[in-house]
Design a protein that fits this description.
The complex is a heterodimer of chains A (about 230) and B (about 260).
Chain A (H helix, E strand, L loop, with lengths): L6 H34 L2 H32 L3 H30 L10 H26 L2 H31 L4 H33 L12 H4 L3
Chain B lengths: L8 E12 L2 E12 L3 E5 L6 H7 L10 E9 L2 E2 L7 H7 E4 L10 H11 L6 H14 L3 H4 L12 H14 L4 E5 L7 H14 L4 E5 L3 H7 L2 E6 L2 E7 H6 L4 H7 L5
Parallel strand pairs in B: 3-8, 3-9, 6-7, 7-8
Antiparallel strand pairs in B: 1-2, 1-4, 4-5, 9-10
Helix pairs in contact in B: 3-4, 3-6, 4-6, 6-7
Classes of the chains: A mainly alpha (about 230), B alpha/beta (about 260).
Amino acid sequence: MTDHTLKAFDEDIGELRALIAEMGGRAEAAIDDALTALSRRDNVLAQKVVGGDKAIDELEAVLEKKVVQIIALRAPMADDLREIIAALKIVGVVERIGDYAKNIAKRVPLISHRTSHEPLSLLPAMGGIAREMVKDALDAFAARDAEKALRVMERDRAVDDFYNSIFRTMVTFMMENPKTISESAHILFIAKNLERVGDHATNVSEMVYYAVTGKHPPERERGVDVFLSEGN
Amino acid sequence: MATTRNPVTKMAARDVNVFYGDKQAIRNVSIDMGMDEVTAFIGPSGCGKSTFLRTLNRMNDTVASARVDGTITLDGQDIYASDMDVVQLRARVGMVFQKPNPFPKSIYENVAYGPRIHGLANSKADMDVIVEQSLRRAGLWEEVKDRLQDSGTALSGGQQQRLCIGRAIAVQPEVILMDEPCSALDPIATAKIEELIHALRGRYAIVIVTHNMQQAARVSQRTAFFHLGTLVEYGVTSDIFTNPREERTKDYITGRYG
């Protein structure tokens, strides 16, 4: 896309994108570190993730201020307007993703070293997909790439499938070993948090798709909801 | 969305071309302008938006080298037909200009002049009613009711422009054309005119040419983007400003032009 006649407007948008990239990078690292802390039972690293969330929250505040300033001073229109509104919504979502990473990290000390049931080994793979989705959704935003955003949405299914599988396994496990219910519930919450990260990455992709094309993304097939299939 | 209903067409242009001597200023413009709506014309300087506006009440007739072809109708009636009374046409299609241009007469006379020559008042009392009603609709009555005999040119710029709008309204037009009515006004006077446009919308078809895109976005229901004498895009204002179809429209409204 060609530059604005007013160069300062392009500088503002460049600054906005750089801040979102930084915030997104921190959220991705937080998910990674939380999962590493979980698999190594590394309470120090987990604590670092919890403490690091503050920086993400601060970036959100800086970005909100920047967006308000751009709207007030530049009166953006059309693609610019859609991009800036998307940016405002995206920072709110990325902040939530940071919260999920923090929530996972907080549960690390509550899961003992002896625990080694199978779902625990699935979490890093699940988290890997969710984190890649976040990364690709934000890359799609930076590159104004609607196709890339669509491909992120398609991957949400895989994260949901992981969650459903872990859910079933954990329910069975808890029924068989009632003593481990507390710990199992934490693992289940971690899986749920990662599932939410995937959902949020999908939301970001939808916003990117709208910002780029001006249209809402086409309806796509969704995974079977575990609760519905459980008959609840 | 409230603005997506199809309005009743008040004026329609079909394949309109305007030439100044050999130079073509407007190329094949076709557009419908609705009743009870504000239609905004936007575009860079020299794009033809003011030229086109002036074809709508035959203001170009006064330019010797100007030639208009194509069809322009008002309620389905060809305004360039040989039996069209141009004076009558300009009463039905009023115009407000960029710079306020009150007559060097009293406030009262500025408004009363048109109704008098069109024979709209039978008595002084009738005229008083027309003057008051026109100035009320123009949002000026409260400010001038105690000094109607003062000169119109003694008013502030914003008041003068509202006086000109009151003068246009006084002859009971059906369409009001506005050619950058706020470009000589400060922001507060501009806001008052915009509020006035909003209030007048239900009574007239209003067509406004503006350089100020924010103004087009604020006051109009439909926006037409002109470029190099052609109508590039015409649509519901909120669509034009959030999701224009044409690349050239997008570049212009996002400030990426040239």
